[in-house]
Amino acid sequence: MSNSDRYQHYFTVSWDRLHRDVRELCDSLLNRRFEGIVAVARGGLIPAGLIARELDIRLVDTVCVKSYDKMEQGEGIDVLKGIDHDGDGWLLVDDLVDTGKTARAVREMLPKAHFLTIYAKPEGRELVDQYHSEVAQDTWIQFPWDTGFAYVEPLADRRRRGQD
Ligand SMILES: O=P(O)(O)OC[C@H]1O[C@H](OP(=O)(O)OP(=O)(O)O)[C@H](O)[C@@H]1O
Ligand SMILES: Nc1nc2[nH]cnc2c(=O)[nH]1
Ligand SMILES: [Mg+2]
């Protein structure tokens, strides 16, 4: 089964929703002190920026990995940029965990980090320390940076065209 067959539904996240969810996660981290944030690029970059602002963290680093090309997951994880510490005292941020393949790879690099994703699917959720909401395994999450506003035809027009 190709990966695009795994996904039967879409969960489209607006900028507003993402921002709200990130802020709610940050609320529970307010009393913790972190050395800095490591964002898992690219998906973790925007959540990491929002979190850095909320928690007043100025030190932000990245690990850069590649796993998916559109909806298709490749065989392995390409690590384009690693990191030279074990994550002790650091917050590790990605946008989501799905199969857990990426999470497993970055966990290995930063075993001591507090690992947070905004969304988590069942196959990968055990690999992260914290997430905002769970999303079904058969659902593809559409982030606001991958989408845009578009005209939607009225239902009546669509029906009329169907009858033509
Ligand atoms: O749990 P998994 O099945 O490994 O999937 C989760 C990963 O997939 C996406 O990254 P992607 O590799 O698409 O790259 P991107 O962050 O550059 O968009 C997402 O940002 C996670 O990092
Ligand atoms: N945008 C996006 N990237 C992913 N990578 C793995 N799963 C997903 C998903 O549901 N949405
Ligand atoms: Mg990613």
From TrEMBL:
Cofactor (UniProt): Mg(2+)
Metabolic or biological pathway: Purine metabolism; GMP biosynthesis via salvage pathway; GMP from guanine: step 1/1; Purine metabolism; XMP biosynthesis via salvage pathway; XMP from xanthine: step 1/1
- Which family is annotated? Belongs to the purine/pyrimidine phosphoribosyltransferase family. XGPT subfamily.
According to the record, the signal peptide region is none
Describe the reaction catalysed, as an equation: GMP + diphosphate = guanine + 5-phospho-alpha-D-ribose 1-diphosphate; IMP + diphosphate = hypoxanthine + 5-phospho-alpha-D-ribose 1-diphosphate; XMP + diphosphate = xanthine + 5-phospho-alpha-D-ribose 1-diphosphate
Q: Give the highest taxon in the source lineage.
A: Bacteria
**Residues that, per the record, bind guanine:** 98, 141
**Protein localization:** Cell membrane
List the protein's name. Xanthine-guanine phosphoribosyltransferase
**Gene3D superfamilies for this protein:** 3.40.50.2020
Residues annotated for xanthine binding in this entry:
98, 141
- Report residues binding 5-phospho-alpha-D-ribose 1-diphosphate: 42-43, 94-102
Q: Name one GO molecular function term.
A: magnesium ion binding
Example GO CC term: the record gives: plasma membrane
On assembly, the entry states: Homotetramer.
Gene Ontology terms describing biological process: GMP salvage; IMP salvage; purine ribonucleoside salvage; XMP salvage
The protein's organism comes out as Halotalea alkalilenta
Q: What class of enzyme is it?
A: transferase
Which EC number(s) are documented for this chain?
A: 2.4.2.22
Sites binding GMP sit at 98-102, 140-141
